[in-house]
Specification:
about 30% helix, 3-stranded antiparallel beta sheet, about 200 residues, alpha+beta, single chain, globular, 10 strands
Length: about 200
């Protein structure tokens, strides 16, 4: 599966609700964590974002051409000084979507050296645990709300991560077998890219 932009992943009405929701969460709730890597407020398993994880699943399945199990959602409000270093996600992020809810300015996401500037409502689809992704430099803007929705292939090697069961029940993000499978997938991906 190649990464791709999904225009209008969220409708205008959904964006209006999400922007108000995010602003209210940021201003009125202290239930966020400061993401140590991104230096920005973030919410894991937020009720509204998790509802969207389920309602948007059919779109993600259509765009990826893969039947999926949902794993988890996570949203972040990038603030001045925020970072997103080059990384791979855990196996629960086999198929990932990053969607723009609100932006005051531009700060693209890069997936395997492809620069993507998302507009409000747009999303990028990629393989989070296989395709390196990041944002260039430090965020120097006035605020940006992004939601991350993660899934696993129903026929793939990471079905034990469906609904984020492994993390929620065993408090681990991956197994030794996951590492072995990921190493092989990543090596196969590197070989594939050499021949493109």
């Amino acid at each position: 599966m190649k990464n791709k932009v999904i225009k209008n992943f969220f409708s205008k009405d959904e964006i209006e609700i999400l922007q108000k929701y995010c602003f209210n969460k940021l201003e009125n709730n202290q239930d966020y964590t400061i993401d140590k890597d991104a230096f920005s407020p973030a919410w894991y398993d937020d009720a509204l974002m998790t509802s969207l994880l389920y309602t948007k699943q059919k779109i993600v399945e259509k765009e990826s051409n893969i039947k999926l199990f949902p794993t988890y959602s996570y949203w972040r409000y990038y603030v001045y000084g925020g970072l997103l270093r080059k990384h791979l996600d855990r196996p629960a992020c086999e198929i990932s979507v990053t969607a723009c809810i609100k932006k005051q300015d531009n700060w693209p996401i890069v997936v395997e050296n492809v620069i993507v500037e998302l507009e409000e409502g747009d999303a990028v689809l990629y393989r989070g645990c296989v395709q390196e992704h990041w944002r260039p430099g430090m965020y120097k803007g006035n605020g940006m709300a992004q939601v991350f929705m993660h899934y696993v292939d129903q026929q793939g090697p990471f079905t034990h991560h469906a609904y984020d069961k492994l993390l929620k029940t065993q408090l681990i993000s991956k197994t030794k077998q996951d590492d072995i499978v990921l190493d092989k997938i990543i090596q196969d991906r590197k070989n594939e890219l050499k021949h493109v």
